[in-house]
Structure formats: C-alpha cells, structure tokens
Amino acid sequence: MSEDDFNARPESFDEGWKREERRYDRGGITAGKVVNWLVLVLVLVAVGYLAYGAAAAFFPRWWAEQVGARVDGSRTQAIAYGFGVGSIFTFVPLLLFAQIRRGFFNWTWRLIVALIAIALALPNWLTVAVAVGTSAAAADGRVILSAEAPGFRNGSAAGAIAGLVLGLLVVGTSMRLGHQRKKVRELKGKVSELERRNGGEAEPVVEPERREPHKHEKVVDDAPAADEPADDASDERLVEPADRAKHSD
Predict the structure, then answer these.
(1) What is the rounded CA–CA span in Å between residue 219 and residue 211?
(2) How far is CA 99 from the centre of its chain?
(3) What is the maximum span of the chain, computed from C-alpha positions, in angstroms?
C-alpha cells in the first residue's frame, strides 16, 4: 500500500462531513439572510409610505363625494347613513378580530385574520381621515361633507361607539359561555373517570341480622291456621308461657 492510499480518508467519511456541514448552513443565521430581511422590511416601509401618501391625497375627497351623492344634502339621511356605516363597519370587524384568540389558528393565520378585520373597517378609516386629516384632500372632504352631508361625521361617530359596545358585549358573552362549556367538559371528564374507577367494585350486600328465639318464647307465625279463626289464633300465639301458667292456676 502506498503512502497516498494510507493518508487518504474514506469516501464515506467525507460525504458524511459534507452533509453535516450543509445542515449547519441551512439552520444557521448568516449575514446574507439578515441583509435580505432588512432590505425586505425597508421596501415594505417605503411602499407603505408611498401608498399612504397616495391614499391621503385621493381617498378623503373621493369618500366625501360618495357620501354626499348618497344623502343628497339631507341632514336626517346623513345622520342615519353615518350611524349605519359606523356601527356595521365597527361591529363586524371587531367580531372577526376577536377570532384570533382561537387555538386552532397559528400565528400566520392570526395575522391574516387581523389584516382582514382592519381592511373591513375601511369606511370608518376614511371618515377618520376626512375628519382629522391634514392633507388638502382631507380639507376638501370636510368642506364637501359639511355642505352635502351635514351630520354624517357625528352619526358615524355615534354608530362606531354603538358598534363597539355591542361587539364587546357579544365577544365577552361568547368568551364567558366558552369558559363555562370548558368547565362542564372538565366536570364530565372527572365524573367519567370516577365511574370508570368504581365500575368494577361491587358494593357488599348487608344481610339483616337473624336472632334465635328464647327457649321460653314461641315463634310467632303471621299466617293463621286454616282450621282456626284468625283472631283467636293470633291471640293465642301472643300469649306468653308465664301468662298461660297464671291462667291454669
């Protein structure tokens, strides 16, 4: 055997060492991964900022125009429409957002459900943007709502409060009922466990104690003799031996 063959490592050893090295690279955190995540976060922040700027410059005015076209300057209709929009688009998203507490959701689905709930409340977000926004579109939206839909913002605020209170009541009641059902299941499980443990143990049967009659006593038979009247037979049986001796004297 030559010196090269003697110093050569087995092929299986090299393959195993390479596989182990590859597993370590996949599980570890490298600088490239950190940079990729940072770039992704920065891109998302930039896109969100641009989307917010575009939305703030367009949607408040557009939303005010849509509301004004629906109520046509009527204060009563504006208040009623605002109350309906505020209550519905607060109550429904709140119920959906409360579902993230469900145990069968993982964190990915919880995030998706939360984003959907926030998106469903978009009409309320648009009303808030018109009411408190600082952009030119928000200022134009306030003017449009004041002229074409007076009372819409107040009705929307009242509806949002009502939807919030109703949603909290429903969610709180649901959580309380779920807690009670959980307790009932636990109690049923404990009862079943006790029945299973005591199922094979039979309770002992206690027989009544039997007393032997005294030698001077006569056994009393409840049934009368066939050839004797019932009253005379019962009187005769109840007479003690001492009484019999006294009568015979």
Answers:
(1) 11
(2) 7
(3) 140
